């Protein structure tokens, strides 16, 4: 009994020490000072949400614009630092915030009770109603929520609109996608009957597409869930307080209605006038550049690592063999998308300076290595055992046997399979767009959001990928022919 009492006293004593320290840390956090010290405010957003955040072309370069971006620029100016915008999927923003890849999230985000458990929010800076975007030809059929019974409704994953549809339209199928551009394409192609959006965004899409119409379906909105706020890491009170000061000034001068929304509308109008794909060729050119960088580097490291793991798997050493088998099976048993996100958000949480491009290359290289290892292993095992025995009888060491006898013959046998892996790598590299790497897929989405055209940018991306893969296939075929005649 005395022992239990002693431990109880110790626990109470420790809690008494910990609680004040925790409160002191929360009250005197250094988040704001860290941002000032590095001189840059890194803002995460999903730039497919006009008029909040979207892209415009300025002097051939991508520029992030919208009322959210204008507010972020003022906030950065108020605290005396430069603004850096990171564009990624909406449902990846809070993960990026949690792993400190970004300093804040500004993406028309609603401070729902669920989000407030892990995110510190600023004051509400803008409030809009929740609307539906429908095809204009369906306007006579759809007016209120009850009219959509049994229909498919689209909404952005992780958004307030997605939750509203799930809660208040239980007789409907919900199709969630990460990008609003994709949802609009789904609407126009009859994959969904409507898309739930915030009022200003729905009107922006409708104003730039005469085949779409905006309606108010009559969602029952909880006052605590309405409005947009800036998200910060939990406990970043210094940044929250600084942001609130900026928001107070913006509201006092009515800057959102006087300056930010008119500026966004001007950019949207400009985009509408310059929505020819020829005006955005530089976007696709930049995407090709990054896709080639990722592919070439990943092919090199994937081949080197793949060869190493193949030899490890063929080793008689149980530890070496076991490590290789475990790695290969684990990588082949998990999706590349998950691996990319783990490297960027997981490992990147430890290595804060890890750029998205490097993270993408690491993930794709490690993934490719597992498949290359199996291709090389099968090639080596296809060589008759007599080849090894003959070379060893001639006095060649095991290393020399592999280098001069086994590998050259195996490479000739596996070249078609190896070439197929390299071609596949070009297409699979498109996954890295989810962490903000500016490859072809990323640039395609920017063009979609800038031009309000969904299908044409996809078609152009398809053609680009085909040209790249077909060209590589021809080059690989040429070398295959050389090997056959060697």
Automatic annotation (TrEMBL):
One of its GO terms (cellular component) is ATP-binding cassette (ABC) transporter complex. GO terms for biological process: amino acid transport. The chain crosses the membrane at residues 290-311, 342-364, 454-479. Pfam families: BPD_transp_1, SBP_bac_3. Residues 288-468 form the ABC transmembrane type-1 domain. It comes from the Bacteria. Its main location: membrane. GO terms for molecular function: transmembrane transporter activity. Belongs to the binding-protein-dependent transport system permease family. HisMQ subfamily. This is Amino acid ABC transporter. It comes from Liquorilactobacillus sucicola DSM 21376 = JCM 15457.
């Amino acid at each position: 009994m005395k022992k239990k009492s002693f431990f109880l006293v110790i626990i109470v004593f420790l809690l008494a020490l910990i609680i004040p320290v925790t409160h002191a840390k929360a009250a005197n956090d250094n988040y704001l000072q860290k941002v000032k010290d590095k001189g840059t405010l890194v803002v995460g957003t999903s730039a497919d949400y006009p008029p909040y955040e979207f892209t415009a072309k300025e002097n051939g370069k991508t520029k992030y614009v919208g009322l959210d971006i204008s507010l972020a620029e003022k906030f950065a100016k108020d605290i005396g630092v430069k603004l850096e915008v990171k564009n990624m999927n909406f449902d990846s923003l809070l993960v990026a915030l949690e792993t400190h890849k970004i300093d804040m999230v500004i993406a028309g985000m609603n401070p729902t009770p669920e989000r407030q458990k892990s995110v510190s929010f600023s004051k509400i800076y803008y409030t809009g109603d929740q609307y539906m975007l429908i095809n204009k030809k369906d306007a006579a059929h759809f007016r209120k929520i009850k009219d959509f019974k049994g229909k498919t409704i689209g909404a952005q994953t992780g958004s307030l609109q997605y939750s509203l549809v799930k809660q208040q339209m239980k007789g409907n199928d919900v199709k969630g996608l990460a990008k609003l551009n994709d949802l609009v394409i789904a609407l126009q192609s009859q994959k969904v009957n409507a898309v739930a959006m915030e009022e200003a965004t729905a009107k922006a899409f409708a104003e730039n597409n005469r085949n779409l119409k905006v309606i108010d379906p009559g969602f029952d909105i909880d006052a605590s869930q309405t409005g947009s706020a800036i998200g910060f890491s939990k406990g970043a009170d210094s940044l929250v307080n600084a942001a609130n000061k900026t928001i107070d000034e913006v509201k006092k001068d009515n800057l959102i209605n006087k300056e930010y929304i008119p500026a966004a509308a001007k950019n949207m109008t400009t985009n509408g006038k310059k929505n020819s794909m020829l005006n955005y060729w530089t976007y696709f050119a930049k995407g090709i550049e990054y896709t080639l960088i990722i592919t070439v580097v990943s092919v090199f490291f994937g081949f080197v690592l793949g060869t190493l793991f193949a030899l490890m798997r063929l080793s008689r050493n149980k530890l070496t063999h076991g490590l290789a088998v475990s790695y290969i099976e684990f990588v082949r048993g998990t999706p590349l998308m998950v691996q990319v996100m783990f490297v960027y958000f997981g490992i990147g949480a430890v290595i804060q300076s890890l750029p998205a491009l490097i993270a993408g290359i690491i993930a794709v290289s490690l993934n490719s290595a597992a498949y290359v290892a199996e291709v090389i292993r099968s090639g080596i095992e296809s060589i008759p055992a007599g080849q090894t025995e003959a070379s060893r009888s001639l006095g060649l060491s095991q290393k020399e046997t592999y280098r001069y006898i086994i590998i050259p013959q195996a490479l000739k046998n596996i070249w078609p399979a190896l070439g197929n892996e390299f071609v596949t790598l070009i297409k699979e590299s498109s996954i890295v767009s989810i962490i903000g790497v500016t490859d072809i897929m990323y640039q395609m989405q920017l063009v979609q959001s800038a031009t309000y055209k969904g299908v044409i940018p996809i078609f152009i991306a398809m053609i680009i990928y085909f040209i790249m893969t077909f060209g590589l296939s021809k080059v690989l075929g040429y070398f295959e022919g050389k090997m056959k005649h060697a």
